[in-house]
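Work Package 3 committed the consortium to producing structural models of liganded targets before the mid-term review. Because experimental data for this complex are still outstanding, the team generated a predictive model from sequence and the ligand definition alone, so that downstream docking and mutagenesis planning could proceed in parallel. The input record is reproduced below exactly as it was submitted to the modelling pipeline, together with the SMILES string for glutathione.
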Amino acid sequence: MLTLYGTPLSSPANKIRFLLNRLGIQYEYKTINLAARQQKTPEFLKINPYGKVPALDDNGFKLAESGTILRYLANKYPSSLYPQKLEERAIVEQWMDFAANHIGIATSKVMYNTFFHQLAGVSKDERSLKEGFLWLNAYLPILEQQLSQYTYIASSELSIADFGLLAALDVIDLIKVDLSPYPYLQAWRQKLMQERFYQACHSSYIAVFKKYVGPLFEDLAI
Ligand SMILES: N[C@@H](CCC(=O)N[C@@H](CS)C(=O)NCC(=O)O)C(=O)O
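The resulting structure, written out as tokens with the ligand in place, is given here.
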């Protein structure tokens, strides 16, 4: 049995759900309550020793880090989402890593210092917040350029890099970043958000955010 541990607000966990949904693989989804620090319980630390979601338990084989899990599953269930040819695969890896290390980190900085810092009971880091927006300004044009040449982020084929990027950008409406200056990126995102693999996870990030923590941020008029 494949068990994925995550939480509906975790974009790294959601990118794995996108892949599993797309591949049509049955899995058990277990929600870990981060606010209740369930991720640091001795029980969960046996699954991921550093106490973070997502984590995977594949018949007793335990794995953490969303990118690693994505690659593991894509290797285990071969498909066009993760090409076999060395160079094609390397390009998929490049865009997946770009999405995680540049876009994902940028949106995390903004999300943490806008919303999640309150839930964690720590003060807002203004510098990190600003840096998150600066990174987005710097890197969204790169995505736009790439998507003006290719249908999907790595090539003309949908790949695991698209799942990583889609999840990293999922919070973009919530943090009120306007994508209209990036029409190719916006169209790519709108198209993928209509797909079954996405809708089987949630209708939108903003909907799930409102459902789980919206009442805590009513003053922000989300
Ligand atoms: N690099 C990790 C990031 C994992 C991560 O930061 N997870 C967050 C939720 S999105 C978490 O578990 N936070 C709880 C904590 O740090 O205690 C990945 O991609 O899986």
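Reviewers should note the following from the model. The first strand starts at residue 2 and ends at 6. These observations will guide the Year 2 experiments.
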